Amino acid sequence: MIVRRPLRRVLPVALAASTALAGVAASAQTASPVATPARWPQAHSPAAITDPRTEAFVRDLMSKMTLEEKVGQTIQGDIGSMKPEDLRTYPLGSILAGGNSAPGGDDRAPPKAWTDLIDAYRAESLAARPGHTPIPLLFGIDAVHGHNNIVGATIFPHNIGLGAARDPDLIRRIGVATAQEVAAVGGDWTFGPTVAVPRDDRWGRSYEGYAEDPEVVKSYAGPMTLGLQGELKAGQTLGAGHIAGSAKHFLADGGTEGGRDQGDARISEEELVRVHAQGYPPSIDAGILTVMASFSSWNGQKITGDKSLITDVLKGRMGFEGFVVSDWNAHGQLSGCTNASCPQAMNAGLDMYMAPDSWKGLFDNTLAQVKSGEIPMARLDDAVRRILRVKVKAGLFERVAPTTQGRFDRLGAPDHRALAREAVAKSLVLLKNQGVLPIKPGARVLVAGAADDIGKAAGGWTLTWQGTGNKNSDFPHGQSIWAGLSEAVAASGGQAELAPDGKFKTRPDVAIVVFGEDPYAEFQGDVANLGYQLADKTDLALLKALKAQGIPVVSVFLSGRPLWTNPEINASDAFVAAWLPGSEGGGVADVLVAGKDGKPKRDFQGKLGFSWPKRADQGPLNRGQSGYDPQFAYGYGLSYAHGGQVATLPEDPGQVAAAGSVDRYFVAGRAPPPWMIDFLGAGSVKAVDAGAQENARQAVWTGQGMLAIHGPPADLSRQTTGDMAVQVRYRVDTGPAKPVTMSIGCSDDASCGGTLDVTPLMVKSAGAEWRSVKIKLSCFQAAGAKMDHVTAPFVIGTDGPFALSVAEVKLASNEGDAVCPK
What we know:
- The protein is built from 22 helices and 26 strands.
- By secondary structure, the chain is α/β, with parallel strands linked by helices.
- β16 (553-558), α18 (566-570) and β17 form a beta-alpha-beta unit.
- The longest helix is centred in the N-terminal third of the chain and has 17 residues, at 168-184.
- Mean pLDDT is 92; it is low at 1-30.
């Protein structure tokens, strides 16, 4: 049954599209804060970066370059938005493959497809042409937990788990392995290490940070830099198998208000220095070649345009001699800027614009701004000098491609997998153990939940940006947690049975239940509170069902942050925070399962790098803050050698309600709160089946009408910046007689709604098949939708006979498969 509600706010959107206005204004800026360099720690890039040989080569090269070539060096495009032949007209300095970019749009493209594509760009950059100075491209990619973009690569635990290990040498070795796997497919540069200090675990990127306290970040920044790049030496380039790194995101991306991605860090300069700057000096001293500026702001001033931080602090006080790159179109968020024009960023000290899909207009505008003097020639030359300096040190002028390119045997190599397995074991944190661990030799073990899902264990930034949709077959060298446990139990003389729903065939001596968060990255990962399954505690029900049968339960919790799980901990005899361990599930078994001698291969050594909440309403929860009251404090972690009792925990989540969905609008036959679904106008709607009973709705138009999902205002501006899309699973039951529109509505006023003509799509799709389509949020924005005030994320309307069934409406990442209807 569908409840009828007034739709006065969204009706004009669908029925008055002709009045739509375009655009979203750039975020307003307040009076700019100014950093005082003397308050900041001192550091300096090694002299090897600016050795005389390098500087002489760069000076000579720059003397031969045209102005167009200099401007081109400062711009980076994405493989999803340009072709190698574009370099003949636009001599860009760098190419990247963003989180959802891959050769031919295939996220599962084989390694050779990657090397062939990279070589094609390189060949164009080095081709002999009249008036062209051959300068090799720098190819960048996000290899944030191993080379997570390639099928078959080693997927290491995400940083939140590595921080729990408290092992700087482990981090260095992971950096070495990651660099080798990136170099094997031709990459020159990874956007890491991440040295953010997440202070609010509601942030969807918390798992990219090592810890809430800068002590861990500070101890890891140098070793990871040295692992990726090796030690810089005067007159020499990076060694074989090493690549350039990028410390990110400068600065305070982990300190934003409310844990809001791309938000504002409303903190003092003292806190900015004491907490968020500590990872940069050791990375700079170790020779980091690039630094990525943050999307976020400091007290209202976007970092990408903050001269006092980029020029005076980073390049001045901290002595950074490499170059500064922006994040994905971040320059377009500065006041007075667009993605295609932002002299303010370069004048503030930015050296390279990451302009994935705006590179062409940005090139033309930046060239004009240099010619007019709006960007001083000296500033451009400084940026180009820094970029070329890095290219020299990366060895790009001495080798067309990294010398280890093509060594595909290094992807998922046995020694790398062994290292990842070690990292998994060291990252596990034991929160509770009432004598059930380790699993005894010869035990009958039930393994339930998501134990056989490597994609879930790997999390976001795995093959795709959000890490969704991955199957075990996408990890041909990997091992699931189930596979690792099964192997270990068998080796100890026991028996293991996999039953995801907990319904076993043979009564077990003990059950291991693997559960936790589904994969996510920024935008999708931001949450309103730290409660786990507050509304629908299906995992808790499984734990309780096993306990009710007298079966001891071991919980292995997968998550990108600490979450309020007191009910789940109470229902468990042992509870292990496994974070996002990646592709080597055997590391879990190495700690949980004893061998025939009664001892596991490893003891627990992980210690919490993030404080575990006592209530779901605890937002910022960090050691040393006023009123610090965690369930398990920073540094907590039991072991077999040093155990401890955990009493029954309180199960009051605090002042929270089940969080409303900002990315799921219609699923399983209903619109989840705060959304409602209605039909208004001439026609009717009823429940139908789409693979399950009444899990879809069929709308039948007899005249003018619309099907709308609506609710309170939601801010989707960041999702729009991040190239998200509205994904609809639908079936056209009767083709349309009149034009059909799809809209995003935003207020009582139709002038801020965005409407698209989807008639060709509906006509083409007519038939009995269920289909899915992704339509970019940016398409609706370009049509006039005000994305920071969305009250109707999905409206479809027409004026004549039409029948459409809808099974699902949600936000999804553009993985090269999203469109703008034409």
